[in-house]
Specification:
The protein has one domain: A middle domain of Talin 1 (Up-down Bundle), CATH 1.20.1420. The longest helix has 23 residues. The chain starts with 5 loop residues before the first helix and ends in a 23-residue tail after the last helix. The relative contact order is 0.17. Helix 3 packs antiparallel against helix 4, helix 3 packs antiparallel against helix 5 and helix 5 runs antiparallel to helix 6. With about 210 residues, it is mainly alpha-helical.
Length: about 210
C-alpha cells in the first residue's frame, strides 16, 4: 500500500479525502508517515450522505472529550471543527437526505436537521472566540454551553435520520464508520507517536443507544 507523507495526508484530509476526524487527530501527534486508506465515496449517494451524518455525530463526541480536558486544546478543536464544516457539509447532506423522507413528515425532519446544523455552527463560532492557546480561559459554565450545543447537534441528527422510512442504509453507513475506525486502529503504530495513548477512539454515539 502506498505511503503518503504527513503533509499530503493533512492537506487531503481538508480538501477532498474526507479523512475521519478521529484519524486526523491521531495524525497530529505522529512524527513519521503512516499508511492510509484512500477515501472512496459510496456509489450510493444516500448511503454516502448518511455516512457523513454519522461522521458529524462522531466528531461532536470527540469535541466533548477535548472540552473535558483540564486545558482544552483550542487550536486542535478549531482544526477539527473546520474539517467537519468544510468536508462533511452538514446542510448539504440534510437537504439531500430529506428527498427520501415521507412527504407527510419531511417538514419536521428538515426542521430537526436544520436545528442540528444551527447548533453545530454555534459550537464552531463559540470555539473561534478563543485564541489558539487559551484553553485555560474556558470556564466550567462556558464548557457546559459548548457541550450543550454539541449534544444538541448529535441528538437532532438522531431525530432527523429517524424519519427515514427505510433504516437499512443508515445501518450500513454506521457499519462503514465502525469498519474504517477498526482498520485505522489496526494500522496505528504507537511507536511512531509522541504519546502512545493519543489514538484512543471514542465510543460511537449510536452504540448501545436505546
Amino acid at each position: 500500500m502506498e505511503t503518503l507523507d504527513r503533509r499530503r495526508m493533512l492537506q487531503e484530509s481538508f480538501w477532498g479525502s474526507l479523512m475521519p476526524v478521529s484519524t486526523y487527530c491521531g495524525l497530529l501527534s505522529i512524527s513519521s508517515p503512516l499508511p492510509s486508506h484512500a477515501y472512496t465515496p459510496d456509489p450510493d449517494p444516500l448511503k454516502e450522505s448518511l455516512y457523513l451524518i454519522c461522521r458529524v455525530q462522531e466528531a461532536t463526541c470527540l469535541q466533548e472529550r477535548y472540552i473535558n480536558k483540564k486545558l482544552p486544546p483550542i487550536k486542535k478543536m478549531k482544526l477539527t471543527l473546520r474539517l467537519v464544516d468544510r468536508s462533511y457539509r452538514l446542510l448539504d447532506q440534510i437537504n439531500y437526505i430529506s428527498k427520501f423522507m415521507d412527504p407527510t413528515s419531511v417538514v419536521e425532519a428538515v426542521q430537526a436537521g436544520n436545528e442540528a446544523a444551527d447548533s453545530l455552527q454555534e459550537a464552531i463560532d463559540f470555539v473561534y472566540t478563543y485564541k489558539d492557546n487559551d484553553g485555560a480561559a474556558m470556564t466550567l459554565e462556558q464548557k457546559d454551553i459548548l457541550i450543550a450545543s454539541l449534544t444538541n447537534t448529535r441528538e437532532k441528527l438522531f431525530d432527523f435520520v429517524a424519519y427515514l422510512p427505510d433504516q437499512g442504509k443508515l445501518q450500513e453507513a454506521r457499519k462503514r464508520v465502525e469498519e474504517e475506525n477498526r482498520l485505522n486502529i489496526d494500522e496505528y503504530d504507537p511507536d511512531l507517536a509522541n504519546d502512545a495513548g493519543i489514538y484512543n477512539p471514542i465510543e460511537l454515539p449510536w452504540k448501545n443507544r436505546k
